[in-house]
Amino acid sequence: MKTNKTLAVKLTAGLVAAVGAVLFFQSPPKEAVAAETGKTGLSFVEYTADGKLKRPSPDMFRKWIYVGTPLTPNDMNDGEASFPEFHAVYMDPISFAHFEKTGVYPDGTVIVKELSSVGSKDATSGKGYFMGDFTGLEMTIKDSVRYKDEPGKWGYYSFGHKYPLKAEAAMNKAASCNACHEKNVSHPQNLSKDWTFEQYYPVLRAARAALKK
Ligand code: HEC
Q1: Domain residue ranges of the chain, discontinuous segments joined by +
Q2: Which residue(s) pair with 89 in the sheet?
């Protein structure tokens, strides 16, 4: 009897967790986010008539929510990292507010990654990597309409890894960007099971941990 009961409890818990997981990982539609917040992160982005993404102004995204800075220094990557070197990552504030409440990246999420070089390796605080000049800009946007055919509904853009940056960028093919991000879905520390590398962004991890309380 006891074993049966334990089994039943376990099965129920498993079922609840499975249903919870399905609901949890589903992004709410843009309309739901807009109804909740007045607009979505897409209100921050602009496209050209032929569908290219216009490079956003730093005056805008540098005031967004800063989520973390992965660093792939050239000198640890055979002299040239594929994404040089500091990657300061910002998330649009509307989507972040939603993420804080739900742990989900809503439809319309816009994330900017601004690259800068290592400027100096020595400061009065000690030896290390200190930020030099801005060198590049990349973006990812979640839009279930515009990117309906892209895995995870995320579109990826690069404005270059050298200044002057491109003023507009066509979406990258899924094989060159999206595919590597998609692989991260199964990473054990990626709790969103979405396309972002949340495991490297302490601000997002903290927001998710606060959610669990
Ligand atoms: C080989 C794997 C790989 C490829 C290919 C790749 N990325 Fe990423 N991307 C990462 C990793 C890992 C991170 C987080 C750590 C970092 O920045 O180094 C990241 C982070 C990002 C972020 C910050 C938001 C997030 O999702 O975490 C953006 C924006 C981004 N990449 C854009 C691009 C674009 C645009 C391309 C194609 C030009 C691209 N990525 C190709 C691995 C990849």
Answers
A1: 1-28, 39-211
A2: 68, 113
Fold of 39-211: Chalcone isomerase (3.50.70)
Half-sphere exposure for 129 (CA within 13 Å, toward CB): 16
pTM value is 0.87
In this structure, the residue with its CA closest to atom 15 of ligand 1 is: 70
* Cα dihedral 72→76→78→79 (10° resolution): 70
- Alpha-helical segments (H) within the chain: 2-25, 30-37, 58-61, 93-102, 178-183, 202-212
- Residues 129-157: pLDDT tens digits? 999 999 999 999 999 999 999 999 999 99
Minimum-distance ligand 1 atom for the alpha carbon of 157: 35
Mutation probe of ligand 1 site: the residue of 140, 166, 191 with most atoms within 8 A of C-beta: 140
